[in-house]
Specification:
The chain has two domains: 135 residues, Periplasmic binding protein-like II (D-Maltodextrin-Binding Protein, domain 2); 217 residues, Periplasmic binding protein-like II (D-Maltodextrin-Binding Protein, domain 2). It contains 17 helices and 17 strands. It has a five-stranded mixed sheet with strand order 2-1-3-15-6, sandwiched between helices. The longest helix has 24 residues. The N terminus is likely disordered.
Length: 425
């Protein structure tokens, strides 16, 4: 009897050890870089763990040098299962280099899951039929915000629907004034912020890259040069743009909230951070970005994405985790708690009319999601992005050279920095 009991105990010990090993293999590692993401995805992760007994999600935070950290972990054999990032050249490069897997087969298998998504947000993670990930819940959408009170004081009509650069310049010029009588302008019609030069390129018929083919560079096109010239003249010829802006988003927000800038392009979720005095139903308005006379309106977006590393030993579970993080329940949670536009347009429509005291808000948002889109998460290496932004800063912010001179001086450097990347495409 004692011998049988000992054998039974040994058998149970083996079973428990095996179960422990199995539990260990069912630990998923999710690597995030934002405290906000950790906070807002926590309910999704909790639901996933509740519905998958024995599976634990280990969240790793890395706010600095995220991409380098991921590559280091891959090289040392401890890669996370799920990674996140922008839909830029690094993420596409990770797909081309085998750091992340192609999730297109998973998306096709679960096509019904994505049926209500805004098409552009689903497709922007694709290249030549392969997909490096699934777009983030929060759809970065960048409309033009304007101060109705400043428009009214200057006798300027609100922008409604598509409008041209000429109308935009006239409005900005009328609202660029000296308000305290010291002989210096202290209120401006337009204030640049993060990436706000990019919409003018696409709305003028140019751009940085073809949104559907990152190997096709548009930066040196005549239309791009003309768009950069228009922005340079806004400031240095017409004085209709805040000087020395440095494309700084925080400075733009401060100027707009303090009534020192009449128009800015910022995220559609800007309302959440606006001061209470601007939420009175008489101050804020939303509009499309202006376009060239012969141009076509586009929508500026940013796209974060979730991908599965090739090294993951639990790819099916990793895919299920991603689905929990972007499903309808998660999208509703983000919609309610952040005021964002979501990638699932069915969820957006559940909250229309929005009831926000912002003139033209719902109409402008619905127009924007139907326009052609481009992402400012460029599909190019970081080194090329740095060179490009140095050139734009020299032209638009500092007036150190003409747009054509800037393109001629910097394009060879940009193309050289992109050479290896383009070869992979």
């Amino acid at each position: 009897m004692i011998k049988r009991l000992v054998v039974l105990m040994l058998f149970c010990s083996v079973i428990l050890s095996a179960h422990g090993a199995s539990a260990a293999t069912n630990t998923l590692t999710l690597m995030l870089y934002s405290d906000g993401d950790k906070k807002y995805f926590a309910p999704s992760i909790e639901r996933f763990e509740r519905d998958h007994p024995g599976v634990k999600v280990d969240v790793i935070m890395e706010s600095a040098n995220y991409q380098e950290k991921v590559l280091t972990m891959v090289a040392t054999g401890v890669a996370p299962d799920v990674v996140t990032g922008s839909s830029d050249g690094n993420f596409l490069e990770w797909l081309l280099d085998g750091v992340v897997i192609d999730v297109a087969p998973y998306v096709e298998r679960d096509a019904a899951f994505f049926k209500d998504w805004i098409p552009e947000y689903r497709l922007r993670t694709y290249y030549k039929g392969r997909s490096f990930g699934v777009a983030h819940v929060r759809a970065g959408l960048y409309p033009l915000w304007f101060n109705r009170r400043l428009f009214d004081a200057a006798g300027v009509s609100y922008p409604n629907g598509e409008w041209t650069w000429d109308a935009f310049l006239q409005a900005a010029s009328k609202m660029s004034i000296d308000t305290n009588g010291d002989g210096q302008k202290d209120q401006y019609g337009w204030h640049h912020a993060w990436k706000t030069w990019v919409p003018f390129l696409y709305n003028g018929g140019g751009g940085i890259q073809d949104p559907n083919d990152p190997g096709k560079i548009l930066l040196d096109s005549q239309a791009t040069i003309e768009a950069l010239a228009f922005l340079q003249d806004m400031d240095f010829k017409y004085g209709a743009s805040t000087p020395n802006h440095n494309f700084n988003g925080s400075r733009a927000n401060t100027a707009f909230f303090n009534g020192k800038a009449a128009m800015i392009i910022r995220s559609v979720s800007l309302y959440g951070g606006a001061p209470e005095h601007m939420k009175d139903g008489q101050t804020l308005g939303l509009a499309l970005a202006p376009k060239a006379p012969n141009g076509k309106s586009h929508t500026m977006i940013t796209i974060g994405a979730f991908g599965i590393t090739k090294a993951s030993k639990n790819k099916e579970l990793a895919w299920e985790l991603i689905k929990y993080m972007v499903d309808e329940e998660s999208q509703r949670y983000h919609k309610v708690n952040t005021g964002c536009l979501t990638t699932n347009h069915k969820i957006n429509q559940e909250y229309f009319p929005s009831g926000l005291p912002v003139w033209n808000h719902d109409k402008a948002v619905l127009q924007m999601v139907q326009l052609p889109m481009f992402t400012v998460d460029y599909m190019m290496p970081t080194s090329a992005i740095t060179i490009m932004e140095t050139m734009v800063n020299a032209v638009v912010n500092k007036n150190e050279m003409s747009p054509r001179m800037g393109i001629e001086a910097y394009m060879p450097l940009i193309k050289d920095a992109m050479q290896d990347f383009l070869a992979k495409l």
